Amino acid sequence: MSCVYRISPLQDPRWDDLLNRHPDASVFHTRAWLEALRRTYNYSSCGFTTSPSGGALQNAIVLSKVKSWITGSRLVSVAFADACQPLVNSAQELKEIVGAARESCREEHYKYLEFRWITAGQSQSPLEGFNPDASYAYHTIDLKPELGAIFRAFHKSCIQRKIRRAEMEHLEYEVGSSDDMLREFYRLLILTRRRHGVPPQPFVWFRNLRDCFGSGFRVRIAMKDRCPIASILTLQYGQRVVYKYGCSDAQFHRLGSMPWLFWQAIREAKTQGLCEFDLGRSDIIDHGLIAFKNHLGASPAVVTNYRYSPAGATKRSGVRLRKVRSCKYLPPSILRFAGSVLYRHLG
Description:
12 strands
């Protein structure tokens, strides 16, 4: 059995090299994501590996330390990630590293340890002492086919027709990361979150993502007569672009702005030679969002959260933001305040 060492991904100079070499590395493993979490929510991060300090980093898992007096302190891999795969090369490595993380959870008196993995949909945990919690649908678009084939894979009426409608409406398009674009995105986000009955993430979260990711951060905005009507936010790492947030003004939905924005983003990703467009995870019960991603020709998978609790089984899906009907009637300033208070407890 190998020794397991504790590391700091934000400080260990070997971290980026591991991400560059490992095929399962994603946006959510990066220093940029971990640093944005630290700046916004004061989440520190740690990692476990079987690689001693004298040589290259061969494997690791990364964890966010979420400390909350409301929802309980816990270790999560990683906070607000759609999925975060273990960066290992064998089942034995995984067993040893997870065992060390589990021991740390016990010794430091965390409520639970949680992993968020893309799985084959198995109902049982692949790890001793862990139980499956919530599962989510997860979609990706393969960008390797030529652009025409990607377009033809779109649903004819739900996607192709709406893209053509947007073109007929002469929607305008802007992509970038300026302060003005970020403010317009956030204005639309507040409209969308209020429509869904939940508060928005704090504005500083998006500003920190931009500052940490640099050129890998992009806001795309669709406009009608110079008025922003829809927006999506993407992050890029390696050969993959990740759709993370989307928002819109509902009174303009008939113009097809959201499918059109995704089409613009896909075209740009193809131009850059990227290989995958990651649409992220969706709640299993969110049939409308799942249908939309299916209509984009995306391939589905399953993300399962696995939990270990030193005290025994934890309540399933306990840390989630519930829809509240009254949120639809709150002014934007109150919604923003609620988001700034709540999200640091939800990671």
